[in-house]
């Protein structure tokens, strides 16, 4: 019998992330990331999942539960149908009614994104005290929770890649640049100037936001970082008590399990 596995699906504005969790070994396997900026079909996803499972020598029947978080409404029916076709089961769709059984709570359950609630759930389960989750994704988000697990605020800023793409698409002569931290804050070339502005600017933004939240609430927080671009900003790791690329996937697993 293949070991049972849980499939977390995190569908965001730029990427759908599929992550498999082994229930027996309590480990996460390498993820499958699919670009969502182009329209995806059920057939395309099935082909990608087929390669993903074949390359890793996994059995479809080993997936005994699926949790889905999506902030892209158009992707919801595609992913639901894909799971039904490919795995023979429907995923648990996380929504505002999913949070009643969680150790964290919010006054706006139908307004807060399910990805943010997944982050908050996973981080609070680690710290069990006031914490902030910094998610480096399409948007850069700061989710703040008090000691009792209540969500007291969310801050949303355009993400790093979003800022670079906006700069490139809205200016005639500025080139698209690689996401690389420059050695100096003082730009010497056009590419270096953009990199210095983005990376040193966002570094100051993250530090300033964390300091401002702490000052306004007069509270000290544990800080967790996640998101696809968290690795690019690894020079900020001394600001964080936890850096976990799988934090959202873990939260999806926890929310689904608590509602099963």
Can you offer a commentary on this structure?
By secondary structure, the protein is of the alpha/beta class. The protein is built from 6 helices and 11 strands. The strands form 2 sheets. Strands 1, 2, 3, 4, 5 and 6 form a 6-stranded mixed β-sheet that branches. A 5-stranded mixed β-sheet has the order 9-8-7-10-11, with helices on both faces. Helix 3 crosses helix 6. The longest helix has 28 residues. The radius of gyration is 19 Å and the shape is globular. The protein starts with a strand and ends with a helix.
Q: Which residues form runs of ≥5 with pLDDT under 50?
A: none
Name the overall outline. globular
Radius of gyration: 19 Å
Beta-strand percentage range: 15-25%
Average pLDDT metric: 91
Order of helices and strands: EEEEHEHEHEEEHHEEH
Summarize the amount of helix as a percent range.
Answer: 25-40%
Largest sheet: 6 strands, mixed
Structural class: alpha/beta
- Tally of strands: 11
Please report the number of helical segments.
Answer: 6
Terminus-to-terminus distance: 23 Å
How is the topology of this model organized?
Layout lengths: L4 E7 L3 E8 L4 E2 L3 E4 L6 H14 L7 E8 L4 H13 L4 E2 L20 H14 L3 E6 L2 E7 L5 E8 L1 H10 L20 H28 L4 E5 L15 E2 L3 H12 L2
Parallel strand pairs: 1-5, 5-6, 7-10, 10-11
Antiparallel strand pairs: 1-2, 2-3, 2-4, 7-8, 8-9
Helix pairs in contact: 1-2, 3-6
Summarize this structure as a short list of keywords or feature phrases:
single chain, 260 residues, alpha/beta, six-stranded mixed beta sheet, five-stranded mixed beta sheet, 11 strands, globular
